[in-house]
Amino acid sequence: MSAELREQLKALPDRPGVYLFRDDDGEILYVGKATSLRSRVRSYFGSSARQSFKLRELSNRTADIETFVLETPAEALLLESNLIKENGPRFNIQLRDDKTFPWVKVTVHEPFPRVLVTRHLVRDGSRYFGPFTDVGAMRRALRMIRQMFTVRSCHYDLPRDAPRRPCLDYFIDRCRAPCVGEQSEAEYRGMIDKILEILSGHTGGLRRDVRRQMKEAAEDLQYERAAELRDILKGLSALEKRGTAIDFRGGDRDVLGISRSENLACAIYLRVREGRLLGRSVHYLNVGEGKAGHAELTAAAIKAVYLRREDLPPELVVPSDFEDRELVQGVLAERRGAAFRIHVPQRGLKKRLLDLASENALHLLSERTELETGEGGRGAPPAAARELGLALELDVPPRDLVCFDISTLSGRESVGSAVWLGDGAPKKKEYRRFRIRETADGKTDDYSMMQEVVQRYFSRRVKEDRPVPDLVVIDGGKGQLAAALHAMESAGVSDVPAISLAKRFEEVFLPGRADPVRLDRRNAGLLWLQRARDEAHRFAVDYNRKLRSRRTLRSRLSDVPGVGPAREKDLLREFGSIEAILRADPEELTRVRGIGLATAQRIHQTLAAGSPPE
Question: Please, what are the domains in the chain?
Answer without folding.
Answer: 3-87 (3.40.1440.10), 103-239 (no CATH), 253-374 (3.30.420), 389-541 (3.30.420.340), 559-608 (1.10.150.20)
